[in-house]
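Readers of this paper often ask what the protein records in our data store actually look like. An entry from our holdings is shown next, in its original layout:
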Amino acid sequence: MSQERSRRGSPRVGLESYPHPRVGAIAGEGKWVFLGQAVTFLIRRPSPDRLWLAPLDLEGGANFTDSSYLAHALFHVADVVSGGGDDQPRPEGIGPAAC
């Protein structure tokens, strides 16, 4: 990872270098708290035409239900796998076949 720092001295990682982040840890370590804060921070500035989110939830999709209303969310991979979510519009070339 990059060792860049923000003006305040916080660690900084550019999404240009790491556009597909993965988060993993043992149960109870705060993954969903971190992801919720990260998504909230990410969607504050860029418009949905500049930032797309495609959450992949291997636990059936229950953890991303609160983010389904976001304009930035293209589709939920758990929904696509289970057959739901196909009626949502998405940019051309983005979808289950593109994954």
Q: What stands out?
A: Residues 94-99 have pLDDT under 50 and may be disordered. The chain has two helices and no strands. Helices lie at 31-42, 77-82. Residues 31-42 form the longest helix (12 residues).
